[in-house]
Amino acid sequence: MAVKKAGSAMTEIVARVQRLTDIIGEITAATREQNDGIHQINAAVIQLDQMTHQNAALVEESAAAAQSLCELSPSLAQAAATLRLS
């Protein structure tokens, strides 16, 4: 009887260890998926940062061009005022 109980207990232990191994495998797979997702998010954030820097540079260039046009507009207005059409 004791041998039967011991055998039964060992079978249960083996089954629980197998279930624990399965759970650890699931956790490992989920961790890999999460890690992949974090890498994708990181890549997207880096790309957004690069685009933000590019946009900021374009805004600066546009502002400089607008300033230049503002500075040239009085000269252009004066030159246009001296033109006479026949």
Structure description:
This protein is an all-alpha fold and 86 residues long. The chain has one domain (1-76). 94% of the residues lie in helices and 0% in strands. The longest helix is centred in the middle third of the chain and has 81 residues, at 2-82. The mean pLDDT is 93.
Uncertain regions: pLDDT < 50 for 5+ in a row?
Answer: none
Assign an overall shape.
rod-shaped
Q: Provide the structure class.
A: mainly alpha
On the 0 to 100 scale, the average pLDDT is 93
| Order of helix and strand elements from N to C terminus | H
Helix content: over 70%
Counting DSSP H or I runs of 4 or more residues, the number of helices is: 1
Describe the structure concisely for a colleague:
The protein has one helix and no strands.
Keywords:
86 residues; mainly alpha; 1 helix
Topology:
Blueprint lengths: L1 H81 L4
